[in-house]
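Check this:
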Amino acid sequence: HGIAETLDPHEFMDLLGTYLSEMSAIIMESDGIVGEFIGDAIMAWWNVPKSIGRRHTCVALHAALRQQHRLAELRDQWLRRGLPEVRARMGLVRGRVLAGNIGSPERMKYGLVGDAVNLASRLENLCKTYGVGILIDGAAATAPGVAEEF
């Protein structure tokens, strides 16, 4: 069973609210966009619609590492309170996307579509297989500044 099924609903929503708030704050502090919440997942991106420069992949990677560090702090607090262990998986991809208003005339949202979005989702899922918190694609690994900083 997942965490949602093991906790009291109010306790779970409090934990989830804290998690989403803390992770979103790190994204926004690093000029990222919190595009949407998908259950307990956050879809975020950098460099669209506002360019933050060639080193946007480094900025996104630093944010992902800060998120993992902050989650480790929160996890320790939650474990001391008897709450279950919370981990996050992140897939980070550098690639072209189509960005804009997506939806129907009744309900629109700004979002991204494209192969890079799908690949990020697949990498996030592969984190569980490999027992890691973050996986990146080859384009992100060879992006400007990444080799020097990581």
User: Anything to note?
Assistant: The first helix runs from residue 3 to 6. The longest strand covers residues 98-104. The CA atoms of residues 23 and 67 lie 6 Å apart. The chain has six helices and six strands.
